[in-house]
Automatic annotation (TrEMBL), chain B:
<dbReference type="InterPro" id="IPR005804">
    <property type="entry name" value="FA_desaturase_dom"/>
</dbReference>
<keyword id="KW-0560">Oxidoreductase</keyword>
<protein>
    <submittedName>
        <fullName>Acyl-CoA desaturase</fullName>
        <ecNumber>1.14.19.-</ecNumber>
    </submittedName>
</protein>
<dbReference type="Pfam" id="PF00487">
    <property type="entry name" value="FA_desaturase"/>
</dbReference>
<dbReference type="GO" id="GO:0016491">
    <property type="term" value="F:oxidoreductase activity"/>
</dbReference>
<dbReference type="InterPro" id="IPR012171">
    <property type="entry name" value="Fatty_acid_desaturase"/>
</dbReference>
<feature type="domain" description="Fatty acid desaturase">
    <location>
        <begin position="67"/>
        <end position="334"/>
    </location>
</feature>
Length: 336, 372
């Protein structure tokens, strides 16, 4: 009542944005280049940070050109880091607004928004005897979080990157190899071509006996899932996808965000979450790949298409849709 | 007083071309909108909060006259910043593009007795769409004044200078009543309409909170300075009310601003809508500080053309808009604050008396313009 219509926290945020009880934020403390297009961001999280499990990711909200954009990145620091900082390692993807901003323009001192860490791509409670990490490109990031966190007796890694200098954490990996803590095979796809999953027999003869964590582009993960299933050992394979695999696009339509009162034209391939954000609507969002259900919103009218399956959902009272993996299938009305 | 349509020399084609040129000005700003603009509004909000905190802190000792003066001046400025450069513009959605839930038209609440959602409806939807259309835009005279020769005179209008003065002093309550459309809704059965009652309740709650904060809690916190702090917050609210009332009067009331008949906006094109905004608004000239304290409503013409562009951009947009006024030979109504305030008040006094009906009515392209 002393501060109405504001809250006392609105004033406290001016002084101490990382304090306990504030919305979870972090401050960028350093940016270390890793390769030509990847960098590690050291973040001091706010007091409300609950800590992560190795392999998990965190969603961060970054203001790029004044606009707040949310993306998920794997945490690459170990859980027992002494100074309480966490790191994410970001690879700039062509046209990627947030990744390019973080790798090339982010400066220490910048405040960012954070969510609590989340994700099921984690190590089990009981240590497996033999481990295989199968990664490609920036898919190495959650695995690096695991490697730095927990030592195993027998760890093999197969990592794909275009060229040797594109391998993120290359020096650290080679140090682990020198210390006999890791056996590493690098596949350089510019010279060797893409990894044929059947080559695993030759690279890691006992792959089927190993508890495996795989992270990389959809092509690699699809092939791995098929391969593991064929050999009847699919329960040993754990995968993490950075993007939903889009199978189908249909017709778009006019999308109305009725609570905000905005109407925009949408194509049939762009997630409604992106459409709404582009129009300045405050869309709830989560993993952006159809897993966490943080973005569910009532569909009041019209129809939407699930971008992963092509399935059409029509509006009925109580129907909720995941806006991050749904596109307009004709005119529709989203209650947001 | 003239009854000649000041846009009569424009062809329908020219009006649409004018619309396209204005769209281009808007697109230029949109393409360039970014980090600097975001930094601007964050800086203003942070400065406003600090100023308010410090002023209220100083007022804890308001029993000492220098503290009273300093605290009251600071709080007045803080309240004006909250309502004008921040509140009005955030509630217009000027900063929604940042996607910061803390600075968004759907979440913002301001230091004002009218709840933001009600104000957004009456201001953004009604006033900005139907600008200066008699019978549609209630901002024209707020339903208590006669603002055009063509409006029928009633003995009630004799008192309009007084009504306007009272409205200025308690402007935020005037706005709240007006957002509730009290005049219309207090009639007969409408009073019992559940929707109206819900809205009235929301206003009641907001008033209670505002009054409690300004006139009970902060004076109590001041201890021995109770009465002087009470006087200080009352003064700050009064200053804010009179200031915002004056600025807003300058936006649509000064001589030279056109009003329009209801039928003139039937089938209005984009170009014609732009033209109505251009002819129905007036600017205030002055320093940068002046523009800031008016919440950039001193660029009323530009604001009405582009209500959702960030307010810090109106100054640069104004140069281009003014060039278009010259190109299309239209009158850009502007002047220093005292002159515009006098002009608006002069009209309020003049129209409190009956007048002869203007003989000639401009009628052209179905756009029948009635000039004041």
């Amino acid at each position: 009542m002393v501060t109405t219509p504001l809250l006392p926290s609105d004033y406290l945020d001016l002084i101490s944005p990382l304090r306990a009880g504030a919305d979870l934020r972090g401050r960028i403390e350093a940016v270390h280049p890793e390769t030509g297009d990847a960098a590690t961001i050291v973040i001091r999280p706010g007091r409300g940070w609950r800590g992560h499990t190795a392999g998990q990711y965190v969603r961060i909200g970054v203001d790029v050109d004044g606009r707040r954009l949310w993306r998920a990145y794997s945490i690459t620091s170990p859980t027992n880091r002494q100074d309480g900082r966490v790191t994410i390692t970001v690879k700039a993807i062509p046209g990627g607004k947030v990744s390019n901003h973080l790798v090339r323009r982010a400066t220490p001192g910048t405040l960012i928004q954070l969510d609590q860490p989340t994700g099921d791509f984690v190590l089990p409670q009981t240590k497996p005897a033999k481990v295989l990490y199968l990664t490609a490109g920036s898919g190495i990031t959650p695995v690096m979080g695991m490697l730095r966190d927990t030592e195993f007796d027998d760890v093999v890694m197969v990592h794909c990157a275009p060229q040797p200098q594109d391998v993120i954490f290359r020096n650290e990996l080679h140090d682990l190899v020198a210390d006999r803590k890791l056996r590493l095979t690098e596949v350089h796809t510019d010279t060797d071509g893409r990894l044929d999953i059947a080559r695993l027999d030759e690279l890691v003869p006992d792959w089927a006996e190993r508890e495996t964590w795989a992270c990389g582009p959809a092509g690699l993960l699809d092939a791995a899932e098929e391969h593991w299933t064929e050999h009847g050992v699919q329960e040993r394979l754990h995968t993490e996808r950075f993007r939903p695999s889009v199978v189908v696009a249909g017709d778009g339509g006019e999308v109305t965000f009725s609570a905000t009162g905005k109407t925009v034209e949408a194509d049939g391939a762009t997630p409604l979450l992106d459409i709404g954000e582009e129009a300045g609507v405050l869309m709830p969002s989560g993993c952006r790949m159809g897993i966490c259900f943080g973005c569910v919103t009532p569909l009041k009218a019209g129809a939407v298409r699930d971008l992963r399956t092509g399935e059409i959902t029509e509006a009925e009272p109580g129907v909720l849709i995941q806006t991050c993996v749904s596109a307009a299938a004709g005119p529709c009305d989203i209650e947001q | 007083m003239t009854a000649i349509d000041p846009t009569a020399h424009l062809t329908a084609e020219q009006i649409e071309e004018l619309g396209r040129e204005l769209d281009a000005i808007r697109d230029e700003v949109l393409a360039d909108r970014g980090e600097k603009d975001a930094a601007y509004i964050r800086k203003v909000i942070s400065a406003q909060r600090k100023l308010e905190l410090v002023s209220r802190g100083v007022l804890l000792f308001s029993i000492f006259p220098p503290a009273w003066l300093l605290g009251t001046a600071g709080l007045s400025v803080a309240k004006i910043m909250d309502n004008m450069e921040i509140g009005h513009n955030v509630l217009h959605g000027q900063w929604d593009w940042m996607r910061d839930p803390k600075i968004h038209s759907t979440t913002w609440e301001w230091d004002h007795v009218s709840p933001s959602d009600q104000w957004k409806h009456s201001h953004n939807e009604l006033h900005h769409t139907y600008t200066n259309v008699i019978g549609k835009d209630n901002d024209l005279g707020y339903g208590i004044m006669r603002v055009d020769e063509d409006q029928k005179w009633h003995p009630f209008h004799l008192g309009q200078p007084l009504w306007n003065f009272i409205n200025a002093c308690f402007f935020e309550y005037g706005i709240a009543a007006y957002d509730l459309e009290l005049g219309k809704n207090l009639h007969k059965r409408r009073r019992k309409d559940p929707e109206f009652r819900a809205r009235a309740k929301a206003v009641g709650r907001k008033i209670r909170k505002q009054v409690l904060k300004d006139y009970v809690i902060h004076p109590l916190l001041s201890g021995p300075s109770f009465l002087t702090t009470l006087a200080a917050t009352f003064t700050a609210n009064l200053v804010r009310n009179i200031w915002s009332h004056s600025v807003i009067m300058c936006g649509h009331f000064p001589e030279g601003v056109q009003v329009f008949e209801r039928r003139s906006i039937k089938d209005e094109t984009r170009g014609q809508w732009y033209l109505r905004q251009m002819m129905g608004s007036a600017n205030i000239s002055g320093s940068r500080a002046m523009h800031f304290m008016t919440g950039n409503l001193s660029h009323q013409i530009e604001h009405h053309l582009f209500p959702d562009l960030p307010s810090n951009r109106y100054a640069e947009v104004a140069v281009k808009v003014r060039a278009l006024f010259e190109k299309y030979e239209l009158e850009y109504v502007t002047g220093p604050l005292p002159k515009q305030v006098f002009s608006a008040w002069h009209k309020v006094f003049r129209l409190s008396l009956p007048n002869k009906k203007p003989k000639v009515k401009a009628s052209d392209r179905g756009q029948e313009l009635v000039a004041a």
